[in-house]
Design goal:
Elements lengths: L1 H5 L12 E7 L2 E7 L9 E3 L3 E2 L3 E2 H13 L3 H11 L6 H32 L12 E3 L2 E2 L14
Antiparallel strand pairs: 1-2, 2-3, 4-5, 6-7
Helix pairs in contact: 2-4
Length: about 150
């Protein structure tokens, strides 16, 4: 339907029946119009904003959503293919992870943790406990066992 819409008239000079081409970059579609009157100053429309002038916002948001959901990117892309949706490839997902997502998540966690610690430091009559070896947010890889004097563990 986008081709039909952009084929009606040139969005710059309003001349009828321009030549229209479409290109996809992952989840983003770029529509280019060209007509005789505008020449090289053809109209170009992008379905999404670009982040850092290079990365379509929808692609990064899709990568973030898949990562936060704990889903498999290859299975998600297979579902998209069955639905007829256009998306990027697995390699792009892992590039997004290493370039943007992991550093953003780590930055958020460190900021959140620092705020929690500063809040706790301001409290009175608080006892700190635990082994201090945390692998990820809210989960400890090493359980601390307390032995009850009459047998058993707590």
């Amino acid at each position: 339907m986008l081709m039909n819409l952009f084929s009606l008239f040139c969005f710059k000079c309003k001349q009828g029946e321009p030549t229209v081409s479409m290109k996809s970059s992952g989840t983003m579609v770029t529509v280019s119009q060209s007509c005789f009157k505008c020449g090289e100053n053809a109209y170009q429309w992008r379905s999404q904003a670009l982040i850092l002038g290079k990365y379509p916002a929808g692609n990064l948001l899709l990568s973030f959503g898949v990562l936060m959901a704990g889903a498999s990117i290859s299975k998600m892309l297979l579902v998209f293919r069955h639905m007829g949706l256009v998306a990027y490839n697995v390699r792009t997902f892992f590039t997004h992870q290493s370039t943007f997502l992991f550093s953003a998540i780590l930055h958020y966690w460190e900021t959140y943790r620092a705020a929690l610690i500063s809040e706790i430091k301001g409290m009175k009559d608080v006892t700190w406990c635990g082994d201090g070896r945390f692998d990820s947010m809210g989960h400890s890889a090493h359980d601390v066992l307390l032995f009850h004097p009459q047998g058993g563990t707590l």
